[in-house]
Design goal:
4-stranded antiparallel beta sheet; alpha+beta; 2 helices
């Protein structure tokens, strides 16, 4: 097996490992006047990273809170559009992440969040050794880091694209409604002017009768 074949095999393994690591994300609909919670088991002394963003709905704001297994609030924010939170788990058990839209009585929200638990596993077994990496291993690590950057950028660009699309559709709907109102006003004014002009020419005075004495 030559160098190029080994490189292709390692690259495929890298892509599979990368997709398995970065698969913890969710986009969901949060209805008005409701609260939705998610649970995730986290072991003690494990790092966790939470990132969330409101994609569409209302003023693009949502309440968010994080609680440990003993229902102690670790994080609580009101009406945030975007935020990140990182913490070290002090207890074993299910941690609760809640998103609330209880302050809104009309608008639904589309919320995206990404939860990363634990440190990323070593890409290669030789990375925890004192020996230097080979040229092919260095290439794989570099590609892996670039893929992570591309993945993060694509996620943020998709969220921005979704926000822009929702705003454009809402703006288009408003323009169409306003155009229909303007068209109705123009047609009403035109018909009214026609009837007024016809009334000017339709008024005929009755002939005066002559009286003889």
């Amino acid at each position: 097996m030559n160098f190029s074949q080994q490189f292709v095999i390692l690259l495929l393994h890298l892509i599979l490992l990368f997709t398995n690591i970065l698969g913890m994300e969710l986009t969901f609909e949060l209805e008005d006047n409701t609260k939705q919670c998610f649970f995730h088991d986290i072991k003690k002394d494990t790092k966790a990273f939470l990132e969330y963003q409101v994609v569409s709905g209302g003023k693009y704001d949502v309440d968010c809170s994080v609680e440990d297994p003993d229902e102690l609030k670790l994080y609580s924010e009101k009406r945030k559009q975007f935020d990140v939170y990182e913490w070290d788990a002090q207890k074993d058990g299910p941690y609760k992440i809640c998103f609330g839209n209880e302050f809104s009585t009309i608008s639904h929200k589309i919320v995206y969040f990404d939860l990363t638990v634990g440190n990323e596993a070593l890409l290669l077994d030789t990375m925890d050794r004192s020996t230097a990496l080979t040229q092919m291993e260095s290439y794989c690590v570099t590609i892996h880091d670039r893929l992570k950057e591309v993945f993060n950028l694509q996620t943020h660009f998709r969220l921005r694209e979704a926000q822009g699309r929702v705003f454009a559709e809402s703006l288009s709907t408003r323009v169409q409604v306003w155009s229909c109102i303007q068209l109705f006003i123009i047609i009403t004014a035109m018909v009214g002017q026609v009837f007024i002009l016809r009334s000017f020419f339709a008024n005929k005075h009755a002939p005066m009768r002559r009286t003889t004495t």
